[in-house]
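[job 4471] stage=fold_predict status=RUNNING
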Amino acid sequence: MSTHDIDTPMAKWRYTCPNGHTSWEPTNSHFWCHQCSRVPDIDAEFWELHDRKTGENLTREKVVLDG
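[job 4471] inference complete, writing structure tokens
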């Protein structure tokens, strides 16, 4: 299993929540999006990031946040 090392704030912008926001943060087993948390009836927790460059969806286990 290959991982995606996200080591700078600019690199983080390549990845989005399911709703297209870049304000996500990793948690122990999933992700959380600040912008989604401010919208009624949208779940701010999600389990896959979207890579805008490749179109791939990444699970939490594939993402390493270094920066």
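[job 4471] summary: Residues 4-65 form one domain.
[job 4471] exit 0
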